[in-house]
Write a structure and sequence with these properties.
Blueprint: H1 2-14, H2 25-28, H3 55-112, H4 115-134, H5 140-149, H6 155-173, H7 175-195, H8 203-207, H9 210-236, H10 240-261, H11 278-312
Helix pairs in contact: 3-6, 4-6, 4-7, 5-6, 6-7, 7-11, 9-10, 10-11
Length: about 325
C-alpha cells in the first residue's frame, strides 16, 4: 500500500506539464489592443502605440479614425454654417418685408388724406427731420421731457413716440427726408464754424498757405466732424465708433473740397454770408458722401471680421485630433 502511494506520487510529479504552460510568455500574452478596431466609446485606444510587428497596423487604424473624425466634424460645421446662414437670410428678408410694409402703410395714409392736410403734414415732416438733424438727434430729449411733464405718459414712452413719429415722417417724405437731413447737418456745421465754436474757424489755419495750411484745415475739420459724429451717435443710440469715424471723414472731405474746388473763396472776410450758401452746401454734400462711403466700408469690414472666425473653424488643422464624438 505504501509502495503504491509513493509510486503514484512519483508518477504525478513526474508527469509532464501541459504544453501551453511551457510556452514563452511573449508568445501567449499578446497585446490584443493592436488587433482591436478602435471603439468610439474608448477613445484612449487611439493613443495605444504597440511595439513590434503590430505597430504599423495599429497606427493605420488610428490615422483612419482621425481622418474620419475630421471629415465628420467638417461636415457638421458646414451643415451648421449653412443652417445659420439660411436663418440669417430669412430674418433679413422678414425684416425687409416688415420695413416695406411699414413704409407703404405710411405713404398710403398720406396719399389718402385731402390736399390741405397733405401740405400741413409734409411741412411738419420736413421741419421735424431738419430740426432733428440740426441738433444731432438731441431734440427728442427736451421734447420728450416737456410732453411727459404735460401728460400722463412717462419720459421713456414719449421718447419712443418721438422716434416712431420721426420714422413715420421719413417714410412719408421719401427722398425729401434725406435732403432735409443733409440740410440740417450742413447748417449746424456751418453755423458752428462761422460762430467761432469749431476748430476749423481758426483764422490762422484758414489763411495759412501751402501744404501746412491744407493739413491744418483738414485736421481741424476732421476733429470737428469726429466730435459731431460722436455726439450724434450717442444721442441716436448708434455705434460710437462708426459715428465718430464717419463724422471725421465728413469733416475732412468738406475741407478738402473747399481747398480744391473753391480755393479763392476764403470764407474769413465773408462773415455775413449765410450758413447754407453754395460753398457750404457743396462742401457739406461732398463730406457727407465721403463719410457715408467710409461708413459702408466700416460696416462691411466689421461684418467680415465677425464672420471670419466662424468660417475658419470649418477648416481644421490636419494634425488636430478631436476627442468628442458627433
Amino acid at each position: 500500500m505504501t509502495t503504491t502511494r509513493k509510486a503514484a506520487r512519483y508518477d504525478q510529479t513526474a508527469r509532464p506539464a501541459p504544453k501551453t504552460a511551457q510556452l514563452p510568455r511573449q508568445a501567449t500574452a499578446l497585446d490584443m489592443s493592436a488587433f482591436r478596431y478602435p471603439d468610439r466609446r474608448q477613445p484612449e485606444i487611439l493613443d495605444a502605440q504597440p511595439t513590434g510587428a503590430q505597430a504599423g497596423r495599429a497606427q493605420l487604424f488610428a490615422q483612419a479614425d482621425r481622418e474620419t473624425e475630421q471629415r465628420a466634424l467638417q461636415s457638421l460645421l458646414a451643415r451648421r454654417e449653412a443652417e445659420a446662414e439660411a436663418a440669417r437670410e430669412q430674418q433679413a428678408r422678414a425684416a425687409e418685408a416688415a420695413e416695406n410694409q411699414r413704409i407703404k402703410r405710411h405713404q398710403d395714409e398720406f396719399n389718402a388724406a385731402p390736399w390741405y392736410q397733405k401740405a400741413a403734414v409734409a411741412t411738419q415732416d420736413i421741419m421735424g427731420i431738419t430740426t432733428d438733424s440740426a441738433t444731432f438727434g438731441a431734440m427728442k430729449y427736451p421734447v420728450a421731457a416737456l410732453e411727459a411733464a404735460t401728460s400722463d405718459e412717462t419720459f421713456d414712452q414719449r421718447l419712443k413716440a418721438y422716434d416712431d413719429n420721426l420714422q413715420a415722417a421719413r417714410d412719408r417724405a421719401g427722398s425729401a427726408a434725406l435732403a432735409a437731413q443733409l440740410a440740417g447737418g450742413i447748417a449746424t456745421g456751418a453755423a458752428l464754424e462761422k460762430s467761432g465754436l469749431a476748430l476749423a474757424s481758426n483764422p490762422v489755419a484758414k489763411n495759412m498757405a501751402g501744404w501746412k495750411g491744407h493739413v491744418a484745415r483738414g485736421g481741424r475739420s476732421a476733429i470737428d466732424g469726429a466730435v459731431q459724429g460722436f455726439a450724434e451717435a450717442v444721442f441716436r443710440g448708434e455705434p460710437i465708433g462708426r459715428g465718430t469715424l464717419t463724422g471725421a471723414v465728413s469733416g475732412l472731405g468738406g475741407s478738402v473740397t473747399g481747398d480744391m474746388v473753391f480755393p479763392a473763396a476764403n470764407p474769413v472776410p465773408k462773415v455775413n454770408h449765410d450758413p447754407l450758401d453754395f460753398i457750404d452746401a457743396a462742401n457739406g454734400l461732398a463730406g457727407a458722401a465721403a463719410g457715408e462711403a467710409v461708413g459702408q466700408t466700416y460696416d462691411s469690414i466689421k461684418d467680415y471680421l465677425a464672420d471670419r472666425p466662424r468660417r475658419a473653424s470649418a477648416y481644421t488643422n490636419s494634425g488636430w485630433q478631436n476627442r468628442e464624438r458627433y
